[in-house]
Design a protein that fits this description.
The protein is α/β, with parallel strands linked by helices. The protein is 37% helix and 13% strand. The chain has 15 helices and eleven strands. Strands 1, 2, 3, 4, 5, 6, 7, 8, 9, 10 and 11 form an eleven-stranded mixed β-sheet that branches. β1, α1 and β2 form a beta-alpha-beta unit. The longest helix has 15 residues. It starts with 8 loop residues before the first strand and ends with a helix.
C-alpha cells in the first residue's frame, strides 16, 4: 500500500461531548459539545471528500468524545456506507449505548466497533473511568455486540494503575470472544498529563507480554507504542525453548505477567497474531477533530489545516510534516534505528516531549547499534 497516497484509517472526532470523565482522556471530553463542531452538512462534505483518496478509500472511524452524543450519527453512518466507504464506531459505554443503539449500528452497516476496557477488575476499570459499575456494564456491552455480529476491538490504555492486570485482561478478552486487542501507550496530552506512565524498561516488558498474548488467538496491536513491532520481529525469530526474559534482559514485571498468562491459558500457540503494519501518526493514519482541524493523529495536536478550507486528501498527501514523517526523516535514536520504517517511534510522544514531531520517542528503551557505536 502506498501510504503517500492514502491512509488506512481516517479518524473523525465527531464530537467532544461525552458523559464520562476518564482520567486519561485525550480529548478532555465534557458533557456538552464544544463550539465549532462540524455541522451535519459539513460532516457529509467530509465523508464525501474521502472518495478523493481513490478506488480503495480508507476506513472511517467515527469516535469522540462519544460518537453517540451526535443526534445525526446514524445518518452520517448511512451516508458513509452508501459511498462504499467502510465505517467503524468507537462509542463510550454510557446509558446511550443501549441494545437498540447496538442493533442500529448493525442495521446501518457498521460491522466493527471498539470499546475501552482498562482493567480486569471492577475496582481498577471503574477507578480509571470514574463511574461505579462501569466494568460490569462494559462486559455486558461486549456480549451484546458479539451477539449482534459486530467485530469487536477492545482498547486498553496501559498505565501504572493497571499494568499488573494486563495478563488477566487478555484472559478476559478470550473468555468474551473478543478477537482484537489494541493497547494504548500513554501520551501526556489532555487529562493524561496527570497520569503516571510506565518507564521505557516497563514498556519493553509490556511489549513482550503483548507478543505472548498474541499467541493465544488475539490479534494484538498498539497505539503510540510502535516499538512493539520491533519486539514482534525479535520474538518471531526466537527459538521456542529460549526464555525471552533471559534473552532480552527483561524485568520481573514481564516474568510475573507472562507467568500469569500461562497459568490461566496454558502453553501458547506457535503462531503469533501480532499486527506489525508499519503505520504511524501521519503514515497510514490521519485525524480530523470535532471542529475540522486535521492532525497527524489524535494524540498529536499539531494543526495541519482544516477540512472546511482544504480537503483532507490534499492535507494528507501534501503537508510537509506528514511527508517527512512518512519518509522517516527522524532525529535522535529514531533517526539512527534500523527499525525506523517498521516502527518509527511515536510521533505524538516526540511532539509532546520535545515539541518536535521528528524527534526520538522517549518511551522506547532501545539503543540502535549506530548510537551505541558513537557513544
Amino acid at each position: 500500500m502506498d501510504f503517500d497516497r492514502r491512509p488506512i484509517l481516517v479518524f473523525w472526532e465527531t464530537t467532544r461531548a461525552c458523559l464520562l470523565a476518564c482520567r486519561h482522556c485525550r480529548a478532555e471530553a465534557q458533557e456538552e459539545p464544544l463550539p465549532g463542531e462540524l455541522t451535519h452538512a459539513e460532516g457529509l462534505a467530509l465523508i464525501d471528500s474521502l472518495e478523493g483518496f481513490g478506488e480503495r478509500p480508507p476506513v472511517l472511524i467515527m469516535t469522540g468524545g462519544d460518537v453517540l452524543m451526535r443526534a445525526d450519527v446514524f445518518e452520517l453512518v448511512g451516508h458513509t456506507g452508501s459511498l462504499g466507504i467502510p465505517v467503524g464506531l468507537s462509542p463510550s459505554v454510557t446509558p446511550r449505548l443501549t441494545p437498540e443503539a447496538i442493533r442500529a449500528m448493525w442495521s446501518h452497516g457498521v460491522r466493527s466497533a471498539s470499546v475501552s476496557l482498562d482493567g480486569a477488575t471492577a475496582s481498577t476499570h471503574d477507578g480509571i473511568r470514574g463511574v461505579d459499575g462501569h466494568f460490569e456494564r462494559t462486559v455486558e456491552v461486549l456480549d451484546l455486540m458479539r451477539d449482534e455480529g459486530l467485530s469487536i476491538q477492545v482498547n486498553t490504555t496501559v498505565i501504572r494503575d493497571n499494568v499488573e492486570e494486563l495478563a488477566d485482561v487478555a484472559v478476559l478478552l478470550r473468555q468474551l470472544g473478543v478477537p482484537t486487542w489494541e493497547v494504548f501507550f500513554l501520551v501526556k496530552v489532555g487529562r493524561g498529563v496527570d497520569v503516571d506512565e510506565l518507564t521505557p524498561a516497563e514498556n519493553e516488558d509490556v511489549c513482550h507480554l503483548l507478543f505472548d498474548a498474541s499467541q493465544y488467538g488475539l490479534a494484538v496491536r498498539t497505539v503510540e507504542g510502535p516499538f512493539f513491532r520491533r519486539v514482534a520481529v525479535w520474538r518471531r525469530d526466537l527459538e521456542p525453548a529460549v526464555d525471552p526474559a533471559e534473552r532480552f534482559g527483561l524485568s520481573p514485571l514481564y516474568s510475573r505477567l507472562a507467568g500469569r498468562l500461562r497459568e490461566r491459558l496454558g502453553e501458547p500457540e506457535p503462531v503469533s497474531h501480532a499486527q506489525t503494519a508499519g503505520t504511524r501518526d501521519g503514515k497510514g493514519i490521519v485525524f480530523v477533530s470535532h471542529d475540522g482541524d486535521v492532525y497527524p493523529a489524535g494524540f498529536m495536536p499539531l494543526r495541519l489545516g482544516n477540512v472546511k478550507e482544504r480537503s483532507v486528501v490534499d492535507i494528507y498527501r501534501d503537508d510537509p510534516t506528514l511527508r517527512a514523517i512518512r519518509a522517516a526523516r527522524f532525529t535522535g535514536r529514531c533517526g539512527e534505528c534500523e527499525f525506523r520504517d517498521v516502527c518509527g517511534g511515536s510521533r505524538a510522544r516526540a511532539w509532546a516531549t520535545f515539541g518536535d514531531p521528528l524527534a526520538e520517542d522517549s518511551a522506547c528503551i532501545y539503543r540502535p547499534a549506530r548510537a551505541d557505536a558513537r557513544s
